[in-house]
Task: inverse folding
């Protein structure tokens, strides 16, 4: 079959499950993009045992390791992935490498039993999920790339072999190893966090008085380093000979400035020293680095990295005024890193790696472009990325020709960015194929001033330029340049960590996390923890004591309520829908609470007779509490001898405030007073009233400012950064002021920030977290009467013992209330009312604290 002049290749896909994962879909889509046609999806042993050759597939793509079959006759064979140097299941992709602290994750693609594609990825030692996501995102393109290459070389040649695949037995992590892994990853996260705050790195440039070709054989060489400057670092040296001097272009980065720029300095070949301090030559509003230099037709050209600007620009040197003028743009809309150009076989070739969206790992995938003329049209190589190897992909200086062979310097970023330089020998370089092999590694001298890495090696006549890295820890790193500490395995001169881009990313951090995470956040878990937090503080006065920080429970309660309830109001878009949803959430649980306390707990613990208890007017007045407006805290003879006597539902007063604050949202909306400036003025006004200590409504005003702060945080969600350093700083401030009179005022801000951080920093995999969130309101409601009951029967226990004993019983009541009453009401509401409000969100928002 054919589609025009292009053959249609038919293939079957074998997966472990009937539903395709995202990366499996990407594999299929990219194969279809190059002309293949998926004709069967296989996931059961029944299908595998059929005579597959009867379907006349051109090849079979295995996307699972757990399969077996007896297949033959497919022209292009059976393709399969092997995960890891010691093959493992796709389910444990990257797991064993993190466990054993191996620097590289090896992945390969096989046609039958022949290796056709392989790649090496840097192991992110503190995140298994990041490893998996990044690797699968890259290898999804491999089958399509190999199909292109295979068809170009051999077409659909027929095979006669019969391939037999059997299930492999992969090592499965034991329970002990999983727990040990949790400890290891946790410790590494702490180290990464510490490094990003306090570790920095300094780069400097040097010169070797040897031709670059001699580096292939020489193990040791002397480097003359540029004199170190206190407030700047220099990297990526490229140069040319000018009389008795070597003119050198470098990237310069100043501590006080957010962007790197290109500077020039000079080395005297006669005096054998650097004779000129760096002078700015090329400055742009965005970050510049890696000023790749080459000569063509007697003219010096430079291609500085400007990935942040998404362009690859060509600059021409004007000797009359000693300035660089932009001549043209070679590539657009591409974040090309360390673009390197050579002329070979009457063609121009451009090598680079490309920054990938959503990851800081841009060092493993080599991309290639070519043109017939330097100023002509540049085309992407059909096999891009032509190589995937974090050990030898990213450019590291000038490719050079020696003994009839081309060598391309590249960075080895497997352990750290710019850890060492490797030399690749280019084996094949054509518009349809590319192949290179590593022939030499250049290790940094551990005894030198720059022992931690090299990442540029460039040719300049009979000299060679190089740069070196030294890592160090310093407390001031936290405040330098607005960076998140040191580079910590990231590119220090990379466009993603410069101040301007970092601040722009931070500006949208919370909004982006809310959008990208959706329901996959930690809100349910945080709601349950705060409900338990409320019970913990209640335990102190129920047991007859007090806690100096009891106010913390209501501060978090009203902040998180203000944030998410106002978010709920914004999503509903109507007062009617908002009020109805609030009622559906609040009152069913209240009905169950009234029933349990009145007819179950009350009769058991009252010191009156059942008849006297049931006929007392206070008993039936208590039922008015279901409205929340008319709360009755006492039942006849109930808890009369407790340290905190007579009170059955001591936590429900906060629900009264909740209703008032809900009403304030509605009123402000109707009066069109929900603009940010108005809310800020209202917050300032409530602070003034709070510090005036008015005797009327002091509690309402004091806690309303917390509720307003939550509303404002939602309004300004695009300006709130969710960042580890800010969370660490918040914890530090609270610890310093723990026993200070200002602690509670500071906690309103820093504790609230930590709450948002806990919700949106990263999804934690906790069993039954959604159920815990649904039961959090019930834990809040039933916690107080349960704690009073425990104290009634066990009067000698401490506050901590009261909390530990009461929490499971409160959870039990909450679970029963949720399963048999509250959830039923929600389901009824969804069926009969939710569909009628077209502006409503499909999910019923639940009280965030409760």
Result:
């Amino acid at each position: 079959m054919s589609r025009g002049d292009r053959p249609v290749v038919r293939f079957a896909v074998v997966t472990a499950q009937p539903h395709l994962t995202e990366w499996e879909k990407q594999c299929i889509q990219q194969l279809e993009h190059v002309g293949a046609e998926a004709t069967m999806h296989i996931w059961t042993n029944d299908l595998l045992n059929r005579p597959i050759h009867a379907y006349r597939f051109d090849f079979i793509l295995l996307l699972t390791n757990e399969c077996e079959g007896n297949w033959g006759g497919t022209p292009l064979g059976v393709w399969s992935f092997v995960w890891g140097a010691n093959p493992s299941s796709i389910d444990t992709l990257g797991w064993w490498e993190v466990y054993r602290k191996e620097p590289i994750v090896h992945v390969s693609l096989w046609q039958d039993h022949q290796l056709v594609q392989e790649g090496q990825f840097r192991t992110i030692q503190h995140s298994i999920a990041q490893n998996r996501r990044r690797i699968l995102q890259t290898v999804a393109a491999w089958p399509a790339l190999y199909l292109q290459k295979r068809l170009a070389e051999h077409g659909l040649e027929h095979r006669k072999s019969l391939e037999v695949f059997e299930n492999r037995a992969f090592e499965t992590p034991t329970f002990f190893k999983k727990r040990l892994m949790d400890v290891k990853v946790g410790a590494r996260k702490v180290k990464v966090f510490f490094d990003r705050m306090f570790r920095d790195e300094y780069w400097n440039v040097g010169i070797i008085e040897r031709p670059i070709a001699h580096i292939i054989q020489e193990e040791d060489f002397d480097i003359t380093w540029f004199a170190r400057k206190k407030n700047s670092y220099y990297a990526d040296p490229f140069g040319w000979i000018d009389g008795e001097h070597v003119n050198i272009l470098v990237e310069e980065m100043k501590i006080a400035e957010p962007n790197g720029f290109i500077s020039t300095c000079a080395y005297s070949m006669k005096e054998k020293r650097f004779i000129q301090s760096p002078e700015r030559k090329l400055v742009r509003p965005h970050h510049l680095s890696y000023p790749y230099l080459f000569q063509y037709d007697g003219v010096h050209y430079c291609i500085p990295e400007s990935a942040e600007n998404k362009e690859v620009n060509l600059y021409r040197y004007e000797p009359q005024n000693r300035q660089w003028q932009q001549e043209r743009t070679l590539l657009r809309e591409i974040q090309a890193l360390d673009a390197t150009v050579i002329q070979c076989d009457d063609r121009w070739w451009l090598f680079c790696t490309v920054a990938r969206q959503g990851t800081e790992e841009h060092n493993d995938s080599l991309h290639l472009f070519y043109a017939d003329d330097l100023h002509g049209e540049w085309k992407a190589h059909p096999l891009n990325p032509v190589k995937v190897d974090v050990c030898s992909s990213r450019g590291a200086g000038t490719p050079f020709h020696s003994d009839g062979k081309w060598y391309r310097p590249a960075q080895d970023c497997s352990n750290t960015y710019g850890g060492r330089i490797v030399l690749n020998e280019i084996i094949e370089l054509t518009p349809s194929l590319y192949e290179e092999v590593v022939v030499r590694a250049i290790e940094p001298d551990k005894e030198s001033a720059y022992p931690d890495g090299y990442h540029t090696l460039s040719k300049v006549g009979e000299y060679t330029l190089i740069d070196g890295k030294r890592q160090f820890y310093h407390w001031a790193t936290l405040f330098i340049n607005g960076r998140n500490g040191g580079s910590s395995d990231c590119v220090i001169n990379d466009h993603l960590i410069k101040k301007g881009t970092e601040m722009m990313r931070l500006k949208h951090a919370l909004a982006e996390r809310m959008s990208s995470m959706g329901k996959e956040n930690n809100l349910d878990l945080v709601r349950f923890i705060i409900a338990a937090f409320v019970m913990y503080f209640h335990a102190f006065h129920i047991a007859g004591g007090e806690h100096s920080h009891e106010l913390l429970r209501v501060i978090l309660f009203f902040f998180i309520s203000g944030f998410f309830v106002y978010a709920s109001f914004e999503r509903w878009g109507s007062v009617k829908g908002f009020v109805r949803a609030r009622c559906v959430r609040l009152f069913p649980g209240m009905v169950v609470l009234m029933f349990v306390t009145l007819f179950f707990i009350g009769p058991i613990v009252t010191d009156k007779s059942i008849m006297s208890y049931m006929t007392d007017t206070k008993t039936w007045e208590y039922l008015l509490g279901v409205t929340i407006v008319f709360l009755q805290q006492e039942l006849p003879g109930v808890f009369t001898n407790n340290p905190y006597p007579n009170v059955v539902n001591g936590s429900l007063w906060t629900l009264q405030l909740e209703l008032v604050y809900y009403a304030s949202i509605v009123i402000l909306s109707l009066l069109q007073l929900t603009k940010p400036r108005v809310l800020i003025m209202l917050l300032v006004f409530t602070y003034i009233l709070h510090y005036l200590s008015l005797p009327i409504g002091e509690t309402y005003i004091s806690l309303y400012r917390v509720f307003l702060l939550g509303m404002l945080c939602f309004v300004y969600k695009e300006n709130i950064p969710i960042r580890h350093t800010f969370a660490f700083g918040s914890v530090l401030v609270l610890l310093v002021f723990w026993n200070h009179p200002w602690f509670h005022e500071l906690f309103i801000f820093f504790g609230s920030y930590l709450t948002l951080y806990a919700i949106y920093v990263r999804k934690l995999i906790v069993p039954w977290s959604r159920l815990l969130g649904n039961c959090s309101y019930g834990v809040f409601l039933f916690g107080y009467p349960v704690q009073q009951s425990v104290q009634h029967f066990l009067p000698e226990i401490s506050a901590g013992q009261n909390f530990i004993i009461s929490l499971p019983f409160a959870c039990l009541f909450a679970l029963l209330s949720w399963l048999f009453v509250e959830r039923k009401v929600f389901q009824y509401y969804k069926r009969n009312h939710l569909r009628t409000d077209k502006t409503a969100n499909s999910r019923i928002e639940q009280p965030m604290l409760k």
